[in-house]
Amino acid sequence: MAEQVNVLVVGEGGREFAIAKKLQASSHVKQVYCAPGNVGMPTVGVQPVDIAETDFAGLIRFAKEHNVAWTFVGPEDCLVDGIVDDFRAAGLKAFGPTARAAQLEGSKDYALNFMNNYHVPTARHASYRDQTAAIAGVDQFGFPVVIKENGLAGGKGVVIAKDRETAVQTIKEMFDRGQARLVLEECLVGQEYSMFVLLSNGHYRILPMAQDHKRAYDGDKGPNTGGMGSYSPLPQLTASDLQRIIDQVVVPTVNGLVAGEYHYHGILYIGLIMTAAGPKVIEYNVRLGDPETQVILPRLKTDLFELVNRALNDEPLPEVVVDEQASFGVVLASKGYPQKPVHGQALGQLPVVDGIQIDYANVAGSLDELKGNGGRLLMVETVAPTLQAAHDAVYDYLDQLNEPECFYRKDIGAKAGLN
Ligand code: AMP
Ligand code: GLY
Q: Phi and psi dihedrals of 194, rounded to 5?
């Protein structure tokens, strides 16, 4: 076998934990570093590095000093801020889109223009630069109407307003908060799915799909969050609907990226709703999803290092082989998340149970004395022969925890018929 190499992952959340864990398990990899990483990462052999994800110069220096073969960028804000461009300028390889391509996530307006140009189906929409015009536009969409801030908001800049009064108030609040632009959209009805496409310029592979749960509380109640739980595969998605997604969404999107000369080497996350009239894209993200990554990567049998390495080197991509087994995970979040998460609560030592994996995210302290660090703390995840078995194992684990300063959703997977 060829010599083993070092790789660097940028980010600190559960997504980066899962990426780094998967890469560390590859026979091609000697050491995965993760900057800044989190205190849970050594549990899977990954070495956290104390460099902020915004310190591009520091990351570049580290990658050079540690002979890193390439860098996998987890979070969107670094991509939007041009981390990949900076690495390239320094002669280094980084997996992720350039700042130009990252606008597909960084600006809703930009993404909608792209979809319009390349005939990718999406919700009926309009974009506004001032309050009066936006308020006047509301009635074209009926109710509920979806109101989105134009820029990055960590999945939290979207309000589904059930009536005119709420819509008007939301629009005022968003502009008052300093938003220069917002988007109104018709509210789509149907199941929401996350699709992940690994791109090497015009060549691509589709990774396992997952369903996220964006709202904070059971029954899709409460505010939008980064995501509260996830599972893969999707038994409710028929083979013919999957084919429609590929034909109507993936193919025109990839063609558009080629035609627009984006030279995209990274992951494109397509958030979509399967409506009665076919699949419609609600957003592009330019990176893997959190918490979807934590459930899709365990099902990936193809070596992740090899996929990324070949994509970055413009070599033919291997086929993606997926484990038939099911993967299921639930996020343990800090009480008060997403509005006012508690910080610093002692989590104690988490029980070790065979087959149950803890993907750490916002934790601090030490592994013996873990503390919550706000937001989504960790994900409890497992792989089992059926989704129901995976679901039951994860909830058996969570139900025996005693973490009064935390909460989790009890209905992850309900839309796949799990209970
Ligand atoms: P986004 O930040 O665009 O992902 O939106 C956050 C969440 O709002 C999505 O995950 C959906 O659940 C919901 N959403 C966004 N756009 C629409 C839409 N046009 N129709 C219905 N729900 C939507
Ligand atoms: N789980 C949704 C996201 O990563 O944007």
A: -115, 125
Residue 168 CA to residue 163 CA, distance in Å, equals: 9
Q: Could you give the domains of the chain?
A: 7-98 (3.40.50.20), 124-186 (3.30.1490.20), 189-312 (3.30.470.20), 326-416 (3.90.600.10)
| Nearest ligand atom owner, CA of 144 | 1
pLDDT in tens, 268-292: 999 999 999 999 999 999 999 999 9
Ligand 2 proximal residues by C-beta, below 6 Å? 155, 212, 226-227, 285, 289-290, 292
Q: What is the rounded CA–CA span in Å between residue 363 and residue 365?
A: 7
Read off the pLDDT of residues 185-220 as tens digits, 9 standing for 90 and up.
999 999 999 999 999 999 999 999 999 999 999 999
Percent of the chain with pLDDT over 70: 99
Distance 293 CA to ligand 2 centre (A): 9
C-beta of residue 280 within 8 angstroms of C-beta of residue 215: no
The span from the CA of 76 to the CA of 83, in Å, is 10
